[in-house]
Design a protein that fits this description.
about 160 residues, single chain, mainly alpha
């Protein structure tokens, strides 16, 4: 379990460090990252709409991923390997959203939409920090979950 937690924590920290490096380069070192600054309005609209939809879709999906029946069953049966796989997917979805939105904020020369999206993702990141207690609780079925499942099956 500790090896899996270390892998997930390395992924988590890697995405946060990458985002911090982008921020430092853009804000303090004044690195010119405005590669899309001269793009057309339609390109900006398509990119902005795509990132909004991806963030709105993937963020709740990532936060609720372990509640889906298939994932939950897999976590109960193949504890360590399933936690490694599904935890990595969850952290990568959120981390990639964070990094891409941060990069696009600077690439479109401080387009506030991407900044707000990055902040929203950053505010959700503490809910998936892979601590030892969280890793253990995600692979163990709780009494409340069993009661809920049995109550729903009786209906």
């Amino acid at each position: 379990m500790a090896k899996t937690r270390n892998l997930l924590m390395a992924l988590f920290a890697g995405f946060l460090l990458t985002t911090a490096l982008l921020y430092i380069c853009g804000e303090f070192l004044h690195v010119d990252m405005g590669v899309f600054a001269e793009s057309s309005r339609s390109c900006q609209f398509v990119c902005s709409t795509t990132m909004i939809l991806l963030t709105i879709g993937l963020l709740p999906l990532s936060l609720r991923l372990f509640k889906f029946k298939h994932v939950s069953d897999d976590l109960r049966q193949n504890q360590t390997s399933a936690l490694s796989r599904w935890g990595s997917i969850r952290i990568c979805c959120m981390g990639l959203l964070l990094v891409v939105n941060t990069f696009l904020y600077y690439a479109f020369e401080f387009e506030s939409t991407y900044g707000y999206l990055a902040v929203v993702v950053l505010l959700c990141m503490p809910f998936v920090i892979p601590t030892i207690s969280r890793c253990q609780s995600e692979v163990q079925i709780e009494e409340n979950d069993e009661e809920t499942v049995s109550n729903h099956s009786q209906l």
